[in-house]
Input
Amino acid sequence: MNDDIALRTDDLEVTYTGNREVTALDGVSTEFAENKLTAIIGPSGCGKSTMLKALNRLHEIQPNAEITGEVYLGDEGIYDTDDPLPEIRRRVGYVPQTPTALPLSIYNNVAYGAKLHGDYSSDELDDLVESYLRKVNLWDEVKDRLDDPGAELSTGQIQRLCLARSLAVEPEVLLCDEVTSALDPISAEQVEETLEDLKEEYTIIMVTHSMDQAKRLADDVIFLYLGELVEANDTRSFFEDPQHERTQEFVKGHTAIDYDDEPDEENVTDEQPVATR
Amino acid sequence: MGTTETPSEGANRLDRRLLLERLSSYWLVGAGFFAVALFGLIVLTLVQQSIPIVSEYSLFQMMTSSNWDPAADEFGFLPAIVGTIYVTILSMAMGTPLAILAAIYIAEYAEGRTKVLVSSFIDVLAAIPSVIFGLVGLIVVVPFVGDYLAPALGAHSIGLGIVTVSLVMAIIVTPFMISLSVESLEALPDELRESSLGVGATKWETIRTVLLRAAGPGIFSAILLGFGRVFGATIVPAMLIGGQTAIPDGPFDAGETLPTLIVNDFGELMSIPLTQSALILVGLTLLVVVWIFNFGAMLIRRRLQRRWQY
Output
C-alpha cells in the first residue's frame, strides 16, 4: 500500500464501559488508501462496525464508549481537533447497515445534508439532487416521484438513496457498514455495481461479512480478529498469500464453504445475503 | 407423549385438542363482540334516555342558550360547551410544548442516573390520583391565580375559574404525554440518528428534522390522549372551576364544563325526569364531540404516518 493515504488510524482503542467492560478495538494502527475501496473483514463481534464508527466519531452516540488513540484525516486528527464534530462527519460520511430513509421525500432525502451545509438556490439544489441520484443509478427509477416519501422505495433503492444522501455533502471518505447484508441478491448486486463506480472518485471503507464481496469489490483488505488487526494487504495478496496463520485459517475456512471458486465473475454475485441483526 | 399410548388413545387426544381449538375461537370471538355490544348498549341507552328532552326542546336551542335552570324548565348548556373548549385549549396550549420539550430532553439528552431520576419522577407524577391534584390546586393554585397571576395580567379573579382548572389539568396530563412521547422517540432505530449525524447534521438538526417527524405520529397520539383526558376530566374542574352557569367573560372567570354540569346536578335532580334526560343529553354531546375529535385525529395521524414514514 504505497498510494496516497486518505485516512490513518494510530493505536485506536475503543472500550465500552457498560455493566461489563469490553474492549471492542484494541490498538489498531492502519492506513486507508485514497480513492480505493478498503474492506474490513472478520468474524462477527470482532470490532468491525466499532472501527468504522470510530472513523467519524459516530460511536459517540453510545453513552458509554471510550476511545484512545487518534484517527488522521489527511494530516489532521479528528479527535484532537478544533473542527466541530458535524464538519468531521461531513468529511467522513457514513452509510448504515440497515437501509434507512429519513422521514422526508425522496428529493429531500438527497438534499438533506447539502441544505444544512450550503446555501443553494432551488435550481442548484435540483441539479445536485439529480446528479447524485444519477451517480447511484437511481435517477431513472425515481425521477417521476421525487416528492413521494423516501420510505416508499424498495430496500435496495433506499440503500442507493442513502449512498446519494451521503455523497451529496461531498465527503472525502465514505464509510459503508455491510451495506448489502439486508438486501436481496439483485438489489445487493445493484448496490455493488454502484460502489464499483464510486470507488474511482471516493475513498470507500466498507465493512463486510462476505469474503466474496471483499474479493469482488475491494482493492485492499483489513482483517480484524477480536478487536486486533491481524493483517492488512491488497486484496490479491491477502486472499492468495495470507501471511498470518489466523488469516490463512479464516480465508481457508471461508473458501472451503465456497461452492464456487469464482470461475465466472458474473455468477458469484448471487451469494445469499446474511441478515445479521 | 408416553410411549405406552395406543393408537386409539392418540386419536382421542387429537380429538380433544381439536375440540379445544374450535372452542377457543368461539370464546375469543365472544369476548371481542362483547366489547362491541357494550359500546352499542351505552350509545343506545344515552340516545333513548335523551329522547324526552329532545322531543320537548329543540337541540339547537339548548346548545345555543346559556340559561340552565331546570326549575324554570331552561336547559341551555352553551356555557358548559364553551367552558369545556376553553379548558381544553388552554391546558393543551400550556402542556403540549412542555411535554414535547421534556420528552426530547429525556429521550435524547439525559444520560445515566439523571435520566432514570427524571423519568421516574414523571412516572410518579402520572400515578397521582386527580383528586390529589385538585386538593393541592385549591391550596396552592387558587391563591396563586387569584392573588398574583390575574392581577399581574390586569384581570380580576376569585382564584377559582377556567385558568386555574387549565393550569392544574396541564400539570395532570403533561406527565402522560411526556412518557408516551419518550417511548415514541426511544423506539426509533439508531440508524436514523446515525444517518442524519453521518452527513454532518448537528444533534438539534437531527432531532428537529428527522426524529420529531419519525416519532411524529406517536407524539401526536400522546397529545390526543392528553386531549381526551382534559375533555373528560371531571373531578378537578368540579373542584376548581367555580360552577358558574353563564358564559364566562374571560379565561379568569368562573365557569362550567360538560362533565361538571353533569356531576353538579346529578345528585339532586336525577329524580326529575326531564332534568335527567337533559343531563344524559349533555353526556351524549360529550361523547359525540369526543368521537368526532378522535375520528378527525385518526385521519390526520394516517396522513402523518404516510408523509413521515421512515
Observations:
- The radius of gyration of chain A is 19 Å.
